[in-house]
Structures are given as structure tokens and as C-alpha cells.
Amino acid sequence: MSRQNISKKYKTFCSRIACLLAASLMATHALSQDLSGWSDKTVCRLAISQQDDPQYLQEAKNRGLNCGGEVNQTQATSTSNSSSSQAAINHTPVSLGPSCNAPEYTVGPEPVSSDSVHRYYKFKWQDDPKICITVYEKNRVDDWQVSKIDELLNFAKNRLGLKIPVNAIVLDQKNSSRKTLRQADFDFCNTKVLTDSEDRDEQVENCVRTSDEWGNRSASAGVNQFDLPNGGDLFIGTDLFEMIDNNAVVFRIIMHEFFHIHQNSLKFYFEDKEQFGVPIFWTDNVEELWDNPKKEYIFANWIEEGWANFGGTALAAPFNTSYGSGELLAEELDECRNVINVAASKGDKFSLRDYEYQGGLYESSENPNNGIAREYAAQYSCGSWAAVYLWSLDERNFQKIMVDFWTGLAESENSSPGFGWVNSFESNFGMSLETFYKDFDAFMKQSRRSQISILKSDEEIIDAVLKL
Fold this sequence. Notes:
The two termini are 24 Å apart. 50% of the residues lie in helices and 7% in strands. Helix 6 (178-190) packs across helix 7, helix 16 runs antiparallel to helix 18 and helix 17 (409-415) crosses helix 18. By secondary structure, the chain is α/β, with parallel strands linked by helices. Strand 2 (113-114) and strand 3 (118-121) form a beta hairpin. A 5-stranded mixed beta sheet has the order 1-4-5-7-6. It has a 4-stranded antiparallel beta sheet with strand order 2-3-9-8. It has a domain at 40-84.
């Protein structure tokens, strides 16, 4: 899930609707497996054939099986792969302490120029933004998990590009010491408080004290107007791998989080200037922006979360070609249909428009249609299917969903403050937003058979081409 786009200046880790709630909606079938009743033959077959999933190898080891000598060979291969993966991590530093997460800026830089809408900045990391992974209490984190996170993030970087540095925190939030967890909070907050005030240390400590409790934090990522000088942040708890017993879904969630950094960095980036522009309204009127998002907001939540879901799927599919992206998108269709059908059964008329910024209103007892809270997370599932629908209209729309909509966003916001995302949508997809809402809402009333017929095959999703 994305961190709050419209944020208080000194914030903690994301605490909106959990990404793992969305993950559970995406993968209700992915329950942890009890292997105790499986035959030795089956365990050996899976330990040998599915080396990317360590649970089978571990079960074979627990039973003292060598599976015809193949388990030892698998272990050696795994160790070799782990060593080569660790070597690959050199290009995205893995720090065993806090140094990797040190801020580039402790005081916000001065703008190089400005106009009536934006202040423009050139940051010292722009020529070579890096992905930095900091692992806390590394003895509690499996090497293969760190290696896989590194591979996923760099694969996404190569597919989508990267405009800002990424500070990724990886830890076992269930079992790490309180001291370690506090250090992780401090390192995070230390990159977020940008001020030359004498009480900066106190502000950092206040950020630490008000951080969310550890133990159930969700995967999260993003960047906003206040902490842009230090790049984006991403948090992955290793419990993600344990809670969801389907690595393909885990990969998708990590790609979803990377997509949040992608979309939320490009909303600031001016391609022609090669500078980052921060809308003056977003920094000088933050309380008004926070309290009244209808007046002026960044982009629709169904685009932010829904397209991150779709983008996560599209990125994970070629990373792991046995991923089954079509199946997961089909599950999302069912989730979206369920929200719509349950709402209709209670006299509530659904529209994707409801999830521009006011989804929480419709998911509460203050729902203006009938006073009954809707089922959760339509901005994820229905937003994802909005992307599926757009792609079905024109093959070129895949490129626009993944890249072009975002690269034109800053310029559109400069020319039409508060409506940049609307203009970018309409110019990219060749229709008014009103027409799109009307057509998509009508599409979502069709039969499931008709709807699923527009879904691309796994092979088409894997082979989809992106141009940077």
C-alpha cells in the first residue's frame, strides 16, 4: 500500500488500510500448509522440483531424508545461488546496521527556481539513484528472502526505471528486539525530518515515539512532498513470507510497493527540466489539502492502489513466468463484483468514481447512498480491473497505464493545478473521465463470463513490452 500522499509533515509508517488486507483478498486460497501428513515421496519430489520454495526442502531435512542424494545437491545449489545473489547485492548495498539508511539531507534544499505553481529542485543523488536495502538483525532474516527482495526491486527498476533513491527496511518485526525495532523507527524518522531547527533531534524522537506499534505493520512504500529530498521508503517485514504461503503473491505485493514509489516519484518529475517540482499548494496549504481533498488532490485512489495492484501483477509475471497472473486478476474481478453485488443488494449504487478520494466514506455507516458500509478495498480490486479494461480497449494502453500516464503527470499538474491527473488520463486514453466512468460502470454490470473474456492470457501479460 502507498503511504499517505497528502501527509502531515512528520509522519510514521503507513497506517491506512493494510496492504496485507488487500493481499488476503487477493489470495484467500494461500493458507499455510501443514506438510506433516504428506508422504516422504511427495516431500522429496517437491523439495527437488520447487527449489524456489524452501518449505519442502526444510521438511525433507526435518525428516532426515536425502531424497536419493538430491537434497544435499539442492542444498549446495541453494548455497551457491545465495552466494551469487549476495554478490549481486553489492550494487544495492545491504547494510547490517543503520548506515545505509542515513539521510542525504537533514535540511531541505533551496529550490533552484519556481513559478506560480511549483518550486523546482535538483538533488545531488539524481545522476545515480540507488536502491539501498537495510536488514536489521540479519541472523533472523533468511538470506534467500533478502536476495529475492533485491532481485525483485532491481528487476522492477530495470522494467520501469527509477528516478529517486529507495531506502528499503527489511526485518523480522515479530521477533526482533525492542532496541532493534526502535532503531529502525529512528532510521526511518531521521530521513523524514528536514529542518535546521535546534529541536530537530526532539522532532525525530517525537516521530519515533508516535510510530505505529510493531508486530502487525503492513508492507508499505512511497514518497511525498516533504521527504522527497531523501527519496522513497519501502518496508518489508519477513512475516510477509510466512503469512502468505504463495511466493508468487508475495512477489506481487513487493512489486506493488515498488510501483507506489514509481508513481509517487514521477508525479514530481519534469522530464524536460530534469528537475523535481513540488506544488506550492501541497506544502504551504497542507492542512487545507488534508482536510478537504476534494478541493485539490493528487490523483484518484483507485488509480494509486488499483494500478499498483495491476502494475505489481504485470511486473511479477515476467519475473516468475509460473506466476499465474491471470488467475490472480480473475480473483480480483470476483472481489470487485462482490463489492458491487453486495452494495446493490442493499440499495447502494456503485460507481468507480466513489473511490477517487472518498472510498472511506462509502465504506462507513455514513455512506451517502444508504447509510450501510460497503465491503472493503474496491479501490484495489476494481481499480485494477479498470486497468484491465483500458488495456482491452487498445494494446497501447498497457504502456500508458504503466509509464506514460505518470511521466506526464507533473507537467499536467503545472498547467491545471488540482486537475493534472484528470488531464493526463484524458490525454493518454483519448476519452473524458466522465465517459470512462460511465463505460466502466456499465461493463461491471455485465456477466462474469463477458468480463473475464477481456483478460489477457498469462503469456500476453508476460510478453507485454514497456518503453522507457
